[in-house]
Amino acid sequence: MSDHEQPPLPPNSRLSGDALPPVEQHAQQYETVRNAHETELIEDYVELIGDLLRHRGEARAADIASRMAVSQATVSKMIRRLNELGLVTSRPYRSLFLTEEGHKMAETSRARHDIVLHFLRALGVRDNTARIDAEGMEHHVSDETLAIMRRFTEKHQT
Amino acid sequence: MSDHEQPPLPPNSRLSGDALPPVEQHAQQYETVRNAHETELIEDYVELIGDLLRHRGEARAADIASRMAVSQATVSKMIRRLNELGLVTSRPYRSLFLTEEGHKMAETSRARHDIVLHFLRALGVRDNTARIDAEGMEHHVSDETLAIMRRFTEKHQT
DNA sequence: CAAATAGTTTAACCTTGGCTAACAATTATT
DNA sequence: AATAATTGTTAGCCAAGGTTAAACTATTTG
C-alpha cells in the first residue's frame, strides 16, 4: 500500500503519545463525542431552565437569551424544539415549565454539572475556571468517571 | 416582574446546586463552550492526521473516514476546509501532509489529549472509558486545569 | 495491458443552530 | 387610556457538518 517505512519508535515514544487504537475503538470514540454533541445543547437549555425555575421561580425566554448570550430569536426557535421533544411546556409571554421528562433531564444534567464542578474545585482549580471548564466538560464525562470524581471530591473535602 | 415568591432555600441547598452566577459570567461560560465547539472538529481532524502521519507515515482520506466513522465524502469536504485554513497540503489522490501551522496544532492537541488521558487513568478510570472521555473532554479543559492534571498524574504515577 | 477494485472527489441534499429585521403582544409608565 | 418599553415570534438568511449517489483516478491483479 505504501512504501513509506514506519517511522522508528524512539525510546521515549510514550512522550509522543500512545499508539493508535484499533480502528473500531477509535471510531467509537469519535462517534460517542458526536452523539454527545447532539444532545448537549438541548441539555444545556433544559438545565438552565431548571436552574432559573429553581432560583427565580420562573424561566423567561429573555433570561435564557441573556444568560446564554444568544439572540431571543434563537431561544424562541429552541423552545419550539424543546416543546416538540416534550421537554417543556410554554404559553407565549408566560414562563416556561419543564415536563416530567424535562425535569428529569434537568436534574440529571445539574447533578453531573455539580459533580464535575466540585471535583475541579477539589482538584484546586480556581472558581471561575472551574465553572467554565465544567460547562464544557459535563457532557463528555462517563458515569464511571463521574462516580470516581464524586468519591474523590468527598475524600478531598475541607 | 414576577409575583412568584422566591423558593425558600432549604438548609441543604448545596445539594441542589450552587446559586446562579451573575449574568455576564454565565454568558461567558456558554460563549466559551460555543467557541470551543467551532475549533473542536478542526482540531480533531488535524490531530488524527498528525497521529496517522506519525504512526503510519501517511494519512489517507480513507483511513480518516474509517477512524472517524464518517463517510469519505465528509472527509473530502473537510480536507478542503483544512486546506483553506492553511493547515494541510494535499494533492489529489495522495497522502495529506500538515503545514507548519497544522503541525503545531496537531502537537498541541495531542499533548492536551495525552495529559487528559493519562490523568483519567491515574484517577483510576478504566482504559477504554478514559479514551472516550478524553476525546470529548480535551477541548474543554483550560490551561490552568491542564497544568493541575499534569502535576496530579506525575504525583500519582506507579 | 485490461479489467477489477479501491480510493477520491463532486453534486445535491438535509438538519442544526446561529443571525437580523420586522412585526405582534404584553406590561409598565406617565 | 395612550404611549413607551420590553418581550416574544416569524421569516429569511447563513455556515457547518453530516448524508448518498455518481463520476473519476489510481492501483492491483488476472
Automatic annotation (TrEMBL), chains A, B:
Compartments, as annotated in UniProt: Cytoplasm
Residue ranges of domain HTH dtxR-type in the record: 39-99
Sequence segments annotated as region (Disordered): 1-20
SUPFAM superfamilies associated with the record: Winged helix' DNA-binding domain (SSF46785)
Family matches, as Pfam families: Fe_dep_repr_C (PF02742), Fe_dep_repress (PF01325)
Domain of life assignment: Bacteria
UniProt keyword Transcription regulation present: yes
Purpose: In the presence of manganese, represses expression of mntH and mntS. Up-regulates expression of mntP.
Family recorded in the similarity comment: Belongs to the DtxR/MntR family.
Quaternary structure and interacting proteins, as annotated: Homodimer.
Protein name: Transcriptional regulator MntR
Provenance organism: Vreelandella janggokensis
